[in-house]
Amino acid sequence: QSALTQPRSVSGSPGQSVTISCTGTSSDVGGYNYVSWYQQHPGKAPKLMIYGVSKRPSGVPDRFSGSKSGNTASLTISGLQAEDEADYYCCSYAGSYTYVFGTGTKVTVL
Amino acid sequence: QVQLVDSGGGVVQPGRSLRLSCAASGFTFSNFDMHWVRQAPGKGLEWVAVIWYDGSNKYYADSVKGRFTISRDNSKNTLYLQMNSLRAEDTAVYYCAKKGSTDFDYWGQGTLVTVSS
Fold it and tell me: Which of A30, A50, A89, B75 is 20 to 30 A from residue B102's alpha carbon, by CA?
């Protein structure tokens, strides 16, 4: 199972919006509405930010949003803040009770 | 509140074995599927294994199939990962994670496994 493809890095100034793409195949991203996104600060455990493509867990700011089109999912951070600087990973169900993560994207707040 | 505490990591020689544990609290452990996810130093996340809430089914990534065994003791609220025939490429921080609806909604703090001679 190959990792989902994400851009290595994205950056933006405070208040701007950034979008991270997550490209898979029809066997994972395109085949199920089971895409989730995780934020990871250095030395910390990942934190769930988006599940079921576009749902936000309680406590996650509404500036985080998710979507999907075909085999590509996207995470958008609107109104970028300094604390949003972190690594972000997408994840998709890949069938047969297995999961695949994305390659990860480093978000830098300029 | 939900808490997952990973333990059991350490330095181990190639070919040897190690067992990781994940102590759960703050939720009804026996009602939820549980996962292991790992992260090699400086690398991305990799899903490792899942065990159903009652232990009846287990599934593994191809990279660990036949070498790793996931198990649980619902009477002790504890998840395990038995790792045999360890290789250098198994060096990683190992996280246990609770299954949410379609995702991993809570994670342990991770435990570092280093495979080195």
Answer: B75
Total Cβ atoms within 10 A of residue B111:
22
Residues of B engaging A, defined by a Cβ cutoff of 8 Å:
35, 37, 44-47, 50, 57, 59, 61-62, 95, 100-110
Residue B23 and residue B4: Cα distance in Å, rounded? 6
- pLDDT tens-digit series, residues A3-35: 999 999 999 999 999 999 999 999 999 999 999
Question: What are the Cα distances from residue A21, in Å, to A46, B39, B57?
Answer: 18, 21, 33
Indicate if the pLDDT at residue A1 is higher than 80.
Answer: no
Task: Specify whether the CB–CB gap between A18 and A6 falls below 8 A.
Answer: no
Nearest CA in chain A to B96: A45
3-state helix, strand, coil in chain B (%, to 5): 5, 50, 45
A98 → closest Cβ in B47, B95, B107 = B47
